[in-house]
Amino acid sequence: MVKILVIGDLHGRMPNIYFKEFDCIVCVGDVCDDRDFLSYIHKWFKLIIEDTKTNVDYRDLIIEDVGEKGLKKFEENSLKKGRKVLEYLDSFGKPVFFIPGNWDQSYGETRIKDSEKNSYNKIKFWIDLWSGKKTNSFLIKGLKNVRDCQDKTFDFSGLNFLGYGLCNAPEEFIERAKKQKLSKDKFRIIEKSSYKLYNWIVEKYKNRNKKFPVIFLSHNVPHNTKLDLILNKKSPRYKTHAGSKFARKFCLKYNPLLCIGGHMHEHFGKDKLGKTVVVNAGYGKDAQVLIDVDEKRGKVRKIKFNPLYK
Question: Which domains does the chain have, with CATH numbers?
Answer without folding.
Answer: 2-305 (3.60.21.10)
